[in-house]
Here is the input.
Amino acid sequence: MNTIQAIKPGPKPKKEDGTNDKRRRVTPETKPKHPGLKTHKHKRGD
Here is the structure.
């Protein structure tokens, strides 16, 4: 029987000094570097 493993949920990893690691977050200062998603076009009948 196959089991499905999900991505591990939970808090972001912390640095050695105990503060949160912010490398995985998009902050307002770095928002222009991250473009939005493209619009999804459906075919007729979908």
